[in-house]
Amino acid sequence: MDKVRVGIIGGGxxxxxxxxxxxxxxxxxxxAVCNVDKSALEQxxxxxxxxxxxxxxxxxxxxxxxDVIVLGIPxxxxxxxxxxxxxxxxxxxxxxxxxHTLEDADAMVQACKKHKVKxxxxxxxxxxxxxxxxKKLVEEGAIGKLYMxxxxxxxxxxxxxxxxxxxxxxxGAIMDMGCHGIEWARWMFGKPKPKSVFAHCQRVLHTNRTKxxxxxxxxxxxxxxxxxxxxxxxxxHGGMDDRIELYGTDGVIYCDLLHGSSMETYSLKGYGYxxxxxxxxxxxxxxxxxxxxLYGFPHEMRHFIQCILNDQTPQETGEDGRATLEIIYAAxxxxxxxxxxxxxxxxxxxxxxxxxxxxxx
Length: 361
Description:
single chain, Dihydrodipicolinate Reductase, domain 2, globular
C-alpha cells in the first residue's frame, strides 16, 4: 500500500480541520466524504478536491477504495458508525470524546478487535508541537521529578448547537474539552492508573441553553503521586485559550498553545477570522496562523496513518479513549455528590450519559 485512502464522515467545523490536516500527510489521500447536508457536502468536496460524496455513511463503508474513516460527527453516533466500519474492514479515527457512554466504548473496542481493524482516538493535544516539546523536556529531566500539572481549555461555547443538548453530547464542558486534559494528563505521567478524582461543575453563562455544565474544575490524582488540575470553560469570552503548567522538583514549564504564536492585531472595523471561538475582531485581537498545525491535527493524522502503513499500535487507542471516559464519569459523580471518587471505580449505569451522574444527584 503506497497511500492510505481516507473517507471523512461529517462536514462541519472539525471535518474542515481534518481535511486541512491531511494536506500535510503525503502518505494519505482524501477519496470520499459523507454529510447529510447535500449542499454543504458538495461545497466541502469541491474545496478539498474529494472525488466521491455520499449522504449515507454506509455508501462510504461499501467502497473498496476507502481504507480508513475519520469521524467528525456528534458523540452519540460514534458507536453506530464505528461498529459498522469495523464490520466493513475499515480502520477508524474518531474525534474526542471516544463516544457517548462506557457501554458504547466497550462495544466499539470489541468490534474493532473482532474484525482486526485499528481504532484510533484522535487526542490532538498529545500531538500539539509545543506540548510534545514540553513532554520531551520533562523526559530529559529538565525540571526534575514531575509532581503536578495543569491544563485549561476555555472559550465562550461550542460551534454547533448539538453540543448543548446533553442527550446528544453526553455532557457539557467536561465532556467536550475535559477529555483533552484528562488524556493529556495520563500521557504526561506515562498513563498510570487513576487513584482519585474530585470535581466541581457549574452553569454560569449558558443557563438557558443547556443542562450541562459550562465551567468545571477537576483534580485528578494518579498512582505514584502525580496530580493534574484540569479546568474547562464555555463561559470565557475572547476566543480560545489553551495552556499548560508543569511543576517538577527542579523547575517549572509554562506553555500557551495559541497566544505565543499569534499576531497582535488592532482593527477599527473588524475582520473575518482571528482564532477559534473569537466572537469579535474589532479592537485588539490575537490573530492565529497555521491553527491546525498548532493544535497538532496534521501530526496526529500523520502518526495514525503511519500506524496503518506499518501495522503499529497508535499512541492513542480506543482503550485510552475509554479510560478517559471512565474518568469523566467519576468527575461527574464527584461533582454530583461533592465527594472524592476513588479507584477501583465502577460507574453507576455505564449505559447512561455521564452528565446524569451530576444532574440526577
